[in-house]
Specification:
- The protein is an alpha+beta fold.
- The protein has a domain at 46-87 and 182-227 and 242-256.
- The protein has five helices and twelve strands.
- It has a seven-stranded mixed β-sheet with strand order 1-2-12-8-5-6-7.
- A hairpin with a 2-residue loop joins strand 1 (4-10) and strand 2.
- Helix 3 (114-125) runs parallel beside helix 4 (148-161).
- The longest helix is centred in the N-terminal third of the chain and has 14 residues, at 21-34.
Amino acid sequence: MPGVLKILRDGSYLAVVATREWQAIQAMRALKAAATWDEPGKLPPQRDLYSALARLPSQDTVIAGEKNAPAETGGMIEAAYYRPYQLHGAIGPSCAVGLFKDGALTLWTHSQGVYPLRDAIAELLRMPVERVRCTHVEGSGCYGHNAADDAAADAALIARAFPGRPVRVQWMREDEHAWEPFGPAMLTKARAALDASGNVAAWQYEVWSNTHSTRPAPAGNLAPAGICRSRPCRRRRRRFPSPKAAAIATRFRSIDSRKPASCTTSCPRCRCACRPCARSART
């Protein structure tokens, strides 16, 4: 196709490099239509999402209080609340520029954490961390965690395969909405035991959710890592398993038999890696 400079394939990871952005978009769409994808189903039906979440293997952690459920004395009040997978909904799609030159990689990125990103990129490419430089530039943001790190990983992989020239990776809106690190679904259950006067004597609060700590290291949390040929190896142990979409549930429990307590968790994250996709890049 006119303007196409390179087609990159790394395992199931595909990318096109073109002189102009529209040429890259057209080539990406043609490549996507011509390719045959293996897309095994990994997610439960939407109607069964919360029951499936509660059945997943979990790491149970008592945050506060005692391990036993509250005893019923003057009555019991119970409630359950549900939260679906949600977009962070950045105002614009993610973007990054990569330049691989003289054995060193420079990335210009709107990542919220350039040093964790540097470590993850070095692990992804199996490069010494001192040979990777991430420079922050203003870009689309959100409250939480959008796909800026993942776009930077795309730029890193493509720039390495196309050395000596800067490569700009611009995600499309459909890329951002399908591949950004969603806030994972959550199931919460609360039980309160009342005394004879109707006061709260004890309560139990439970949360089922994916792990809440990825930004973005290790490299396995980056979108391309699960589909490229040279998958990164883990170099650090994490307290919780690396999240997959509907793959791991972490169950937090807050139980207090003396007075009401609270359980607060941070912004969650998950990664759906159920299918590969083609990326567009402009040099």
